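Chapter review: from sequence to fold.
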Amino acid sequence: MKLTTFVTNTARGFITYNGIGRDRMGVTPSDWLMEIRDMGELTLHSLAQRIKAISEPRIEALKADFSGNPRHSFVIAAYEGAIPVVGVISNYEWATKHGDEKIASPNLHVELIVPKPVTSGAVIATGDCGPKGKQGTRKIFTALKARRSVESITRLMVKSVRDSAYASGRKGTVGTSVVLGVLPFLGNFKTTCHIVGGSTLGEMPNFLSPQMSMRDGYVETDGSFVSRYDSKTRRGIIRENPCPSCGNPIPDGYARCGVCDTQTNS
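The token string follows.
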């Protein structure tokens, strides 16, 4: 699961990422985040700096696996107290300017920004958006300015990601499956998964807080019970089997291949 929800001493919000999916041992950037232990002592800025410190040596160690160019970004959306904050921790793109670097920097930079009170909000789109993704981003911001409902805006968010995937024939780096997180100012985290064709396996976002941490959570939505715990790695394992038609990896539970629409046996 790419999405992590978090609570620190002063902040609460979401972290996600694009770029590196996993290393040769199957360890993901989400797993890197789970090594942070002192959440009760961190502000949002010090959390971002901790992510930078943990991630930089790992990304550098993966250069050979990414042709010497391991581009990667974390994205943060949070409340620091009552103040909304968005930002990126990246080695090739920024929250405050257009465009990106073709070659990754050896260092991650941290940008955390607060939307001005007179604005309707902020939209950050990272990774391989393409023209369709950029068009979708503009529609989301227009909806924010018009003060459309949360439901209307989240539908546009899902559509923007999927439009990017379909524009590349679903053969690019953007997939059709979308995990959506919403955090009301006065309310709890809300997350939903949007999977083309549906799935019998519902993944839960990872969670970091001063009291506890949780990762690799899932729900068997068809009522069955399947143990996915691996005692050697001490974590839940969700297998990805190759599609028999196109070879695209398909997670357990998915009803269809996300690239060629081949039906699975799940």
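Two observations follow directly from the output. The mean pLDDT is 87. The first helix runs from residue 29 to 33.
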